[in-house]
Each structure stands twice: as structure tokens, then as C-alpha cells.
Design goal:
Order of helices and strands: HHEHHEH
Structural class: mainly alpha
CATH architecture: Orthogonal Bundle
CATH superfamily: Jann4075-like
Helix content: 55-70%
Number of helices: 5
Shape: globular
Number of strands: 2
CATH class: Mainly Alpha
CATH topology: Recoverin, domain 1
Length: 105
């Protein structure tokens, strides 16, 4: 858990440990596989999955164009990272869309 928190704090220095833990719990078994624990910024199918499963279903957002713009912004923020952690991407998206409260307290 501390590795995920440290990774998130690289981009969000005041990240809430409980919110990061909620994302880790949400991702569950997907984090055990290296491939599914990462988000490929160059794979349109992967980015669509992030939009549909995380942004829409978990965060309760809508509007494909706005969501795609937010995802693109997060990917730009993380461009220096070759391996983009799913937990970090999800946290930054929740923060970007001001939906951290959805993750509990």
C-alpha cells in the first residue's frame, strides 16, 4: 500500500491514504498482474475502458468528450512515466474531476 501512496504523492503531494486504499481495493486482483496494473496511454481501447469503467461507473460522470479531455490531461501530466500505474491514474482522474469524495473517507 505504501508503494501506491508514494507513487500517487509524486503527482498529488497531499494525497489521502484512505482514498488511495479505496482505489487499491476497487482494482483488487487486477493489480496482481503487471499488465492490468498499468494503463497504456497509447491504447485507445485501454483509455476507453478507463473512461467507461472508472470515470462513468465508479465516479458517476458522463460526457465522453469531457472525460476524454480529462484522461488526456492526466496522461500528459504523467508523460514522463513509461509505466503508468492504474492506481495513480485513477486517483488523478478522481482529483481532476473533483470526485475524491466518491471514494469514501
Amino acid at each position: 500500500m505504501t508503494d501506491y501512496l508514494a507513487a500517487v504523492k509524486k503527482y498529488a503531494p497531499h494525497a489521502d491514504e484512505k482514498k488511495v486504499a479505496a482505489i487499491v481495493k476497487h482494482c483488487g486482483i487486477a493489480l496482481r498482474s503487471r499488465d492490468s496494473s498499468l494503463v497504456s496511454a497509447s491504447d485507445p481501447k485501454e483509455l476507453k475502458t478507463v473512461r467507461e469503467s472508472w470515470c462513468k461507473k465508479k465516479l458517476g460522470l458522463s460526457g465522453d468528450a469531457e472525460l476524454d479531455a480529462g484522461i488526456k490531461q492526466v496522461m500528459t501530466t504523467m508523460k514522463a512515466e513509461h509505466d503508468k500505474s492504474r492506481v495513480v491514474v485513477y486517483y488523478l482522474l478522481a482529483e481532476h474531476f473533483k470526485k475524491l469524495d466518491v471514494l469514501g473517507s
